[in-house]
Every structure is written in C-alpha cells, then in structure tokens.
Write a structure and sequence with these properties.
With 392 residues, the chain is an alpha/beta fold. It has two domains: 16-40 and 294-390, Aspartate Aminotransferase, domain 1 (Alpha-Beta Complex); 50-290, 3-Layer(aba) Sandwich (Aspartate Aminotransferase, domain 2), CATH 3.40.640. 37% of the residues lie in helices and 19% in strands. It contains twelve helices and 17 strands. The strands form four sheets. A seven-stranded mixed sheet has the order 4-12-11-10-7-5-6, sandwiched between helices. β1 (16-20) and β2 (23-26) form a beta hairpin.
C-alpha cells in the first residue's frame, strides 16, 4: 500500500515502537542501540523518567494558551537560559530552523533600529546547515539544499569554513552579521578552531557587526560544555538552539543580548505554539539536569572513553575508517567506503548511526549513556566493519 506521507525522506526500513535509555525496540521486538540520538535530540535518552514526569504533570494542568498571554513556564525557562549564558532575552520556537529565522530577522532589525537599514547582508560558511525553510537554505547555500527552490532569499554570501582572511575580505558596506555553527554537524562534524572563533568575534567588534551562532546540534551539553563556543572563550550576540533543549519534545530558542534584541518590540515576531507550557516544562527539566553538579564532567569522561574506543576501532579497520573527529559526544568517523554502507551495516548489527557530510558517520549518543552501552555500541560497529571488509 502506498504511503500517504510525502516521500521527502529516504527512510530506513525500521519502525520503532518503544525506547528506554539508549535502546530502541522495533515492531518485531528487536532491540537497537541508539548511537544517533534522534540526530542529537534525545540528549537524555528515550523515555527519560524525569522528563516524562515533567511532561505528564504539565499535561494534566494546561497544554496551550498561545502567546497572547504570559506563560509562567516560558518566563522560568528564559530566566534559566539567560542565567546560564551570555543572553539577556530569549524567544521560543518549535524548531531549530525557526530559531535561526528569528536570529536573522533580529540581526536585520537591529540595524534598522539604529538607523542603518542598508546593513542587511550576512556572511555564512560553506558546508553549513541551518534548517530547511526558504530563508535557511539560502543561508546555507549548498546546491543540494537550494536546487529547485529559487528565487532564494537574498543577502547571504558564503566563504570557506575556518578561513578568517576570506571572511574579512567578504565584509562590505551592507554587512550586518557573521553566522556560523561552532561545530558543523550536517557538514561532517567539523569543529571551528578556537582562534577562528576568536578572530570572528574580533572582526565583528572592529566592524560593528553581530555574531550569530547556530548551536542547534552542538549545544545543550553535546560537546562537553553547555555550549560549544565556550571552548574559545568568546560569546555571540545572537544564538539559535533546539534539538537537545527539549530532549525529544519540539522546542527551540533564539537567545540574544539586550543590544542585539533592541529592535524586536511587540509585533515584530511571533509564534502560535512556540514556548507553550508543555514544551517549556520539558525544557526546564532538561536544563535542570544538564546543569547539575558533575553532569558535564561525566559527559566529558564518557566522551574521552568513547574517543579511545573509536580510535581503536579505526586502527582495527583501516580499510573502512579513516579518522575520528569532533568534541565531547558529538563525534564523526570519516569513512573510506560510502558512509551509507557503514550505516546500513550497523542496522544489520542493531546499532544506529547518522550519515553526515564529507563521508562521515555521526556518533551522537545520549549524554547520559552508560559506559557499558558505549562498549556494546562500539562492539557492534566493529562487527559491522568486519562485514564490510568481507565484501571489499
């Protein structure tokens, strides 16, 4: 029977009906170790009891009122995010790409607000990914995203990721902001060098630009810091987050300094569902957990252990794997065979990974994954690589 679902996804032939921790159970009862975390979304695992309790309690009280009224959970979560970050103001969304749309609108509105409306252009980076709205495919600019969807939203230019000189050369009279992911996720788990982020901050300060960071995939503890830009000791003016913030419940946010947000007054932006009581109840619990004493320290210990295991895996299978890269529990393994072959061989061994750019498989487990589950997942990847080697 033909599915009524629009066929925009190349889906694997798997249908999961239950999850617990780092494990997923398929319709036929087979259990899979989830090393992809719903693409970095299930930051605290599947069916996390604390998140389930927070959602259930809120669901029994109030689901939705709209942003016509004050939402206490939204106020609380905004206060937490502001306290834990550089930000003074927060706008809540349902997804990462919506948070990025808010970020771009905010940057343009800021310059209009300070009587420089000609400053509308944003410098972005090659191999980036910021979502799939019309605005955000223009921000990324890659052919695979934009083909067939023209005309594109104007105002974006693209330079090589990590090239500070090219970035500086791209700054013109109409430039308003520089936009990047501190770790390119879809682009193949490519972390920005600290010096590059520091250089971008310096360029923005020198030229009066805003620095926008997309931490949708690399934020909320994924890299071993609450946010990846913390490694470089710099802060953005505007930041988009999502994915791990809701732990599986749709929730995103655009964070900003008072200065950057100055033009965003009543009527300039909005969302019917964004930041509703259910989403923010879960987001509050996620933030409570990831900011607990020792949580991130444990993430870093697990990340160091996993990195060692993956380096050994690469050394054992040099015809299949090339290298490991990334930060924290946001890791990529560069493949020497098509990465889809590795992902599919993983399905055969009941371990889930996520393909990425530059022929990488992404490793994005729950931040609270156990050491024994890490060992088991790597063992299954080892078996998958052995299967591939037999057919080389």
């Amino acid at each position: 029977m033909t599915s009524a679902v629009l066929p925009t996804y190349a889906r694997a032939p798997l249908s999961f009906v239950k999850g617990e921790g780092s494990w997923l159970t398929e319709e036929n009862g087979l259990r899979y170790l989830d090393f992809g975390g719903g693409i970095a979304v299930n930051a605290l695992g599947h069916a996390n009891p604390e998140l389930a309790a927070a959602l259930s309690e809120q669901a029994g009280a109030l689901w939705h009122t709209s942003n016509l009224y004050r939402i206490p959970n939204q106020e609380r979560l905004a206060k937490v995010l502001a306290h834990e970050t550089f930000a003074d103001k927060v706008f809540f969304t349902n997804s990462g790409t919506e948070a990025m749309e808010c970020a771009v609108k905010m940057a343009r509105k800021y310059f209009s607000h300070i009587n420089q409306p000609e400053k509308t252009d944003i410098i972005a980076f090659q191999a980036a990914f910021h979502g799939r709205t019309l605005g955000m495919i223009a921000a990324a600019g890659s052919e695979k995203l934009v083909a067939g969807f023209g005309p594109l939203l104007p105002g974006f230019s693209h330079v090589p990721f990590g090239d500070l000189a090219a970035t500086e050369a791209a700054i013109g009279d109409k430039t308003a902001a520089i936009l990047l992911e501190p770790v390119q996720g879809e682009g193949g788990i490519v972390p920005a060098e600290d010096a590059f982020l520091q250089g971008l901050r310096a360029l923005c300060d020198a030229h009066g630009l805003l620095l926008i960071m997309d931490e949708i995939q690399c934020g909320v503890g994924r890299t071993g810091r609450l946010f990846a830009h913390e490694y470089a000791g710099v802060t953005p003016d505007i930041m988009a987050i999502a994915k791990g913030l809701g732990g599986g419940f749709p929730l995103g946010a655009c964070l900003a300094t008072d200065r950057a947000a100055a033009g965003m007054v009543a009527g300039t932006h909005g969302s019917t569902f964004g930041g509703n009581p259910l989403a923010c109840a879960v987001g509050l619990k996620v933030m409570e957990i990831v900011t607990r004493d020792e949580f991130l320290a444990t993430v870093n210990r697990r990340a160091g252990f996993l990195r060692q295991q993956l380096e050994a895996l690469v050394a054992t299978h040099p015809d299949v794997f090339g290298a490991v890269r990334g930060l924290g529990l946001m890791l990529g393994i560069v493949c020497k065979v098509p990465n889809t072959e590795v992902v599919n061989a993983g399905y055969d061994e009941q371990v889930l990974t996520v393909p990425g750019g530059q022929n990488v498989i992404r490793i994005l487990p729950a931040l609270n994954i156990s050491e024994s589950d890490l060992v088991e997942a790597v063992s299954r990847l080892d078996k998958a690589a052995t299967l591939i080697e037999v057919n080389l």
